[in-house]
Specification:
The complex is a heterodimer. By secondary structure, chain A is an all-alpha fold. Helices cover 82% and strands 0% of the residues of chain A. Chain B has one domain. Classes of the chains: A mainly alpha, B mainly alpha.
Amino acid sequence: MNVLFRYANPHEFMRLSGAVLPFIAISTALCFAIGLYLGFSVPPDYQQGTTVTLMFIHVPADVVAELAYGAIAVCSLLSLVWRHPLADIAARAAAPLGALFTALAIITGALWGKPMWGTYWVWDARLTSFLLLLFLYLGYMALWNAMEDETRAARACSILALIGLADIPIIKFSVDWWNTLHQGESIMSGKIATVYLAPLLIMMLGYALLFLTLWMVRIRTAVLERRARTLMREAAS
Amino acid sequence: MKLAARSGGSAALALSFFALVATLVPLGVGADLQLLARMASGVLWVAAVLAALLSLDRLFQGDFEDGSLDMIALAPLPLELTALAKIAAHWLSTGLPLTLLSPLLALLFNLPGAASAILLVSLLIGTPAVSAIGAIGASLTLSLKRGGLILPLIILPLLSPAVIFGAGAVSGVLDGTPANGALGLLAAFAVAAVLLSPFAAAASVRLNLSS
């Protein structure tokens, strides 16, 4: 916990993240380069043909979209329990990214669905729960933007994020119960050939690093913005 | 708390809204009775949730504006209990009347008697969850001038399980499967919502009061 708090200090965070950021950005680019190269050179799947390449763009977006909500929830908990301003900033910075990755997952999923299922959109369980996840992100962002007082907004949004966290499994379960058409999960069950697995894992790492990079940049921007505002207020008074 | 029910006493409004939405749908999709019977449970569930939303933004707002919410928060009664009472009042003034009106509307939608009974039961079980989760949304958006606009965006995704299980129970009956499973899941969701939401609502009322 102590280590966490040391780096939760905005000054420490700015120093550390500034040093680490270039490396993360470069490894993101590397992962994308290798992953995309491998992804485009895989042999066509016997069922899906060349559209299998879309998997390397679609599945990692799914995973990161969900991870981002987890990141928001963890930050919200830190913010509620320890009232740490950096956790607020981090949670707020992650929300638009989460919404973006969710939208990306939905769009690439729709593009994949057209050749596979013959239609862009089916009311299938996972598509629907991702649509609901997108709305959760939008509601969360709307609440942030609507409240003027920042500390108050941070606490309200933390509560909302934690309620969402409790509700998401129920939503997923209910939507699954409602309808299932999407292919089952196939990574853990070992039903995927190594030639597809390698690029998939590299792309997942790439997406996760991309999220981390963008998230850090957004947090840094928010911290600097806050500092600028304080300076301006001091100059004005 | 009776006062709370009366001052937010938009039961008639919510009922009219409920009935109106249910009337507009056949106008939109046509008068095919077969089709309407299939759609009835979904349409009526969605209409009920929307009708319950109408009065939600007033749940805490009136007391907040005239300052009595500060008094209530200072009172010896824990705020959680007050929130629970508010939820109960909201349910009694919207959820319950909507539930009681539903068989009549189901009749207009050509829903068979057995399915209509299940719809009644599912609304009876599910609408408390709507009030409970709605109360969280209402307390979060308490200090916003236009909270009524954000409220639906926040709570409708959270409420989707209620709609799925509630309407699913009725469609199940139409397809000849027993509704127990769906109703059980709906009940579990409602119980969890009613038990947990007073804490969340009380916490968010507190943060909106402290400044």
